[in-house]
Design goal:
Elements: E1 20-21, E2 28-29, E3 34-37, E4 40-43, H1 44-91, H2 94-98
Antiparallel strand pairs: 1-2, 3-4
């Protein structure tokens, strides 16, 4: 079992007494080594890892959003192309289908 907070020393500064324990890595730290994030005290190393993870997940959201936007743009482009092809086909005179043009 770990020593109580009052008897513990900082993980990085052995000469200083610990004031908080990081909930992620469960190490004791002094006032300089911890910071408050989302209402809890966390060490700098764990905070950096947490922020990188959050940044990566938000980047993933933008990538998937970009993929959906690109797919939507492709769909709209395909509909436009087929619409234009339909307009061209409607402009072909009916005599063309009777074979008059080939005689």
């Amino acid at each position: 079992m770990a020593a109580p907070l009052a008897q513990s020393r900082c993980f990085q500064h052995v000469s200083r007494e610990a004031v908080a324990r990081c909930p992620q890595c469960e190490r004791f730290y002094c006032r300089e080594c911890v910071t408050e994030h989302d209402g809890r005290m966390i060490c700098r190393t764990c905070l950096d890892a947490l922020l990188l993870e959050q940044e990566a997940s938000s980047r993933g959201l933008f990538k998937s959003l970009g993929a959906w936007l690109l797919a939507g743009a492709g769909y709209v482009f395909a509909v436009y192309v087929f619409y234009q092809i339909g307009r061209v086909l409607l402009r072909i005179p009916s005599e063309f289908h009777s074979g008059v043009f080939f005689e």
